[in-house]
Amino acid sequence: MNELDPLLMVALAAGLLALAFLGWALLERRRAGAAEAKAWTLREQFIEAETRMRLIEDQAATQAELLRAQAAQSAGAVAEELLKRTDETFRNREQLAQQRLEAQLKPVAETLAKFEAQVQAVEKTRAEETGGLKAQIAQLMEASTATQAEARKLSAALRRGAGVQGRWGEQTLRNVLEAAGLAAQYDFVEQFTLDSEEGRRRPDVKVKMPGGAVFAIDAKCSLNAFLEAQEAPDDASREAALMRHAQSVRGHMQGLSSKTYWDQFSGERSPDFVAMFVPGDGFLAAALDRLPDLMTEAMDKRVLLVTPTTLFALCKAVAYGWRVEEQAANADKIAALGRELYKRMSVMGGHAASVGKALEAAVSRYNQFVGSLETQVLTQARRFEDLKVDHEGKEIPEASPVETAVRPLSKLSTSDAPHLRIAGQDEG
C-alpha cells in the first residue's frame, strides 16, 4: 500500500495534467474558431469596404470629369474676363506711366529748351567774337607786317652809315631823357664842344645835376656788326658777327674812357664817370653774352654802360634830385614869407591892442558919464514928475553902464607867447 501511493499519485497527477491539457486545447480550439469566424467577418467587411471604395472611386472619377468639364467652361470665361481686365489694367497703367513720364520729362524738356537757347546764343556770340577775333588778327597781321617793314627800313637806314646811326641814337637818347622828366636846355644840353689839351671834344649830352654837378653821355656806339648778324645765313656767320659787335662795343668803351670827360668838367664838380649810351637792351645783352666781363671792365675804366632802361632810371634819380632841391628852395622862400607874415601879424596885433585900449578907455568914460548923469542930472529932472509937470507921456529912459570888459589880446603878449621859429630859423 505504501509502495502503490507514489504511483497513484503520479498517475493522478498525469491525469490531472492530461485533463488540464485537454481543457486548454478545447479552449484554444474555441479561440481559434472565434478568431477564424472573426477573420471571415473581417474578410467580408474588407470585401464590402473594397466594393464601396470602388464605387466611391467611380463616383469621384465621374464627379472629377464633371468638375473638369465645368472648370473648363468656367476657366474659359474667367480667363476671358481676366484677359479683359488685364488688358484694361495694362492700358490704364500704360496711360498712367505715360502721364508720369511726361510729368517727369517736362522739366527736362524745358531745361533742354533753355539749354538749346543758351547754346544758340553762345554760338551766335562765338560766331560774332570769332569774326571780331579774325578782324583783330587781320589787323595784328597788318600791324606786324607794317612793323616788320618799318624794322627793315630802320635796318636799311642804319646800315647806310655812322651818321644815320648817330642821329637815331641821339634821338633815342633825347626821348629817354624827356621821358624821365628832364627838360632840354634846362636839365640837359645837347651837342656842345669842349676844348682840351688833346683837342676839341664833343659829347652828345651834358646832364645837369642838383648842386651844380654835370655828367656827359655819349651815343655814338656802332651797330653795323649787330645788323650783319641779323642777316647772317648760318649760325657760324651770325656768331662771328656778334663777336665783332662785342669787340666794337668794347673798343668804343675804351676810346670813350681815354677822353676823360670828368676831368674836363672839373670846374662843374662832375662825377668821375661818363655814360656810354647803347640804344637798345638787346645790343648790350648780345655784347655781354660774348664778353661777360665787359661791364666790370667798363666800370674800372670809369665808363657806365647804359641802355634806355637803365638810363631812364638814372635820369629819374636826377629829376628827383632836382625836385628835392626845388622843394628845399621853396622851403627857404616859405620860411622868408613866414617871417614876413609874422612881422606883419605883430604890427597888426599892436594895432589891435591899441584899439582895445581905446575901447576900454571909451567904456570907462561912458560909465563915468552914466554915473554923473544918474547922480547929478536925472535926480533933479525926475522932480518935474513930482510937480505934475506935463511931459506928454514921455519918460526919461534909464542909462545902464557897460559892464562887459574888452577882451585882452593875451596871445600877442611877448612875455606869454612862445618863441616862434619858422623852417628851423629864428624869427629875428
UniProtKB/TrEMBL annotation:
<dbReference type="Pfam" id="PF02646">
    <property type="entry name" value="RmuC"/>
</dbReference>
<keyword id="KW-0233">DNA recombination</keyword>
<feature type="region of interest" description="Disordered">
    <location>
        <begin position="394"/>
        <end position="428"/>
    </location>
</feature>
<comment type="function">
    <text>Involved in DNA recombination.</text>
</comment>
<keyword id="KW-1133">Transmembrane helix</keyword>
<keyword id="KW-0175">Coiled coil</keyword>
<keyword id="KW-0812">Transmembrane</keyword>
<feature type="transmembrane region" description="Helical">
    <location>
        <begin position="6"/>
        <end position="27"/>
    </location>
</feature>
<keyword id="KW-0472">Membrane</keyword>
<protein>
    <recommendedName>
        <fullName>DNA recombination protein RmuC homolog</fullName>
    </recommendedName>
</protein>
<comment type="similarity">
    <text>Belongs to the RmuC family.</text>
</comment>
<dbReference type="InterPro" id="IPR003798">
    <property type="entry name" value="DNA_recombination_RmuC"/>
</dbReference>
<dbReference type="GO" id="GO:0006310">
    <property type="term" value="P:DNA recombination"/>
</dbReference>
